[in-house]
């Protein structure tokens, strides 16, 4: 059973890769611990890497949609789902475990829910509390651009973005991740349906038992 990968960082300036990896590993380990599974460092390192990859893919696919709430929720949801599927697949291969479609779908749903909620909450925080991007008034330029057309970094927003992600985005992922892990446990506890061979063997046993019972009834009638 593998823990749900936490949401993508879908709003504001991107934290440097080591910082993203550290945050994701910490969030995934926290999810495992609150789910009663221990730290599971090896699996959560894999999940963190695929979570970053899922977020990057989602950002590329939805990067031109805009900057509104819908884009950030969608990017977080897609990144969370892709990251969870990738992490589960890789851990199955690494640990030699069978692929369970229901487990993977539950994980993807939890990743999407956590990523979407985290992206939406982070968007609200950045929209309402972070300072606006600096404007440049050089003739011929547009706000946020330098005179030569190069995009100016969003100075002053990085700390707000990181704080919003740690305070809102990651906890949302942990919340939905724990729920998904509980659902995975419940799904794993259910007995699988019998195979055709098992059903055939059960029918043969039932037929034999019925035959023995009929024979005993006949003997009782003869000697009754």
Shape: elongated
Q: Could you spell the SSE succession in H and E letters? A: HHHHHH
Number of strands: 0
Head-to-tail CA distance between termini: 61 Å
Helical content class: 55-70%
Q: Which structural class best describes the helix and strand composition?
A: mainly alpha
Please mark out the parts with pLDDT under 50 across 5 or more consecutive residues, or reply none. Answer: 1-15, 146-153
Our Rg estimate from Cα atoms comes to 27 Å
The share of residues in extended strands comes to under 5%
Mean pLDDT comes to 78
Question: Can you offer a commentary on this structure?
Answer:
Helix content is 70%, strand content 0%. The chain contains 6 helices and no strands. The protein has helices at 17-34, 41-62, 69-95, 101-129, 158-189, 196-223. Helix 1 (17-34) crosses helix 2 (41-62).
């Amino acid at each position: 059973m593998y823990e749900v990968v936490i949401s993508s960082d879908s709003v504001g300036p991107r934290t440097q890769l080591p910082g993203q990896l550290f945050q994701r590993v910490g969030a995934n380990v926290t999810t495992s611990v609150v789910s009663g599974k221990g730290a599971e460092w090896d699996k959560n390192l894999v999940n963190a890497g695929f979570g970053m990859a899922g977020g990057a893919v989602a950002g590329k696919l939805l990067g031109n949609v805009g900057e509104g709430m819908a884009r950030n929720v969608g990017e977080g949801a897609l990144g969370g789902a892709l990251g969870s599927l990738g992490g589960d697949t890789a851990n199955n291969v690494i640990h030699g475990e069978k692929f369970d479609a229901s487990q993977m779908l539950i994980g993807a749903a939890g990743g999407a829910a956590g990523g979407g909620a985290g992206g939406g909450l982070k968007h609200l925080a950045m929209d309402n509390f972070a300072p606006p991007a600096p404007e440049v008034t050089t003739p011929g330029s547009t706000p946020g651009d330098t005179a030569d057309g190069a995009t100016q970094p969003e100075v002053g927003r990085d700390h707000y973005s990181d704080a919003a992600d740690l305070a809102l985005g990651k906890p949302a992922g942990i919340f939905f991740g724990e729920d998904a892990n509980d659902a995975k446990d419940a799904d794993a506890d259910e007995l699988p349906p019998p195979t055709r061979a098992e059903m055939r063997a059960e029918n043969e046993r039932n037929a034999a038992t019925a035959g023995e019972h009929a024979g005993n009834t006949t003997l009782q009638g003869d000697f009754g």
